[in-house]
């Protein structure tokens, strides 16, 4: 199991455990726990992972009209695509829209000082490839 699949599996496990342990489901709390997991998984680029996951929350989760279902499979796939981007596996980042690519590029530019050079180079190459710059 690769790290993207592991992230998806762990996110589903968080949802399942939350439902089992709480009488009322709180999609916001579950998504915050998944965000925390995402940031921990990307400790080398913690600041970037935090900013990317904040974008995920604001663009997908906080705009949802069905918080009792969040995160949906579609929204988890977007977070998994962001994970794939961080890992330089662009072929696994299909769930990202053109607007996502542009926003993630802008976030990367603003966080560039805290990103290891090799990671920054691979991210920028991906953004150029996706015409997000």
Describe this structure in a few short sentences.
With 133 residues, the chain is mainly alpha-helical.
Query: DSSP strand (E) fraction?
Result: under 5%
Low-confidence stretches: none
Distance between the termini: 32 Å
The strand count comes to: 0
The largest β sheet comes out as:
none
Radius of gyration: 15 Å
Mean pLDDT: 96
Structural class by helix and strand composition: mainly alpha
User: Percent of residues in helical segments?
Assistant: 55-70%
Q: How many helices in DSSP terms?
A: 6
Shape: globular
SSE run = HHHHHH
Explain how this protein is built:
- With 133 residues, this protein is mainly alpha-helical.
- It is 68% helix and 0% strand.
- The protein contains 6 helices and no strands.
- The protein has helices spanning 3-21, 27-41, 46-61, 73-86, 98-111, 117-129.
- The mean pLDDT is 96.
Q: Which labels suit this protein?
A:
133 residues; mainly alpha; globular
List the helices and strands and how they pair.
Elements: H1 3-21, H2 27-41, H3 46-61, H4 73-86, H5 98-111, H6 117-129
Helix pairs in contact: 1-2, 1-4, 2-3, 3-4, 3-5, 5-6
């Amino acid at each position: 199991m690769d790290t993207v699949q592991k992230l998806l599996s762990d996110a589903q496990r968080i949802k399942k455990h939350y439902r089992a342990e709480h009488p009322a489901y709180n999609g916001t709390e579950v998504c915050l726990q998944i965000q925390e997991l995402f940031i921990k998984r990307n400790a080398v680029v913690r600041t970037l992972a935090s900013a990317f996951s904040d974008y995920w929350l604001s663009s997908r989760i906080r705009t949802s009209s069905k918080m009792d279902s969040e995160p949906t499979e579609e929204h988890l796939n977007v977070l998994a695509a962001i994970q794939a981007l961080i890992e330089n596996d662009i072929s696994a980042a299909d769930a990202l829209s053109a607007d996502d690519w542009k926003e993630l590029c802008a976030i990367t530019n603003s966080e560039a000082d805290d990103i290891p050079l090799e990671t920054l180079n691979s991210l920028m190459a991906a953004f150029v490839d996706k015409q997000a710059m």
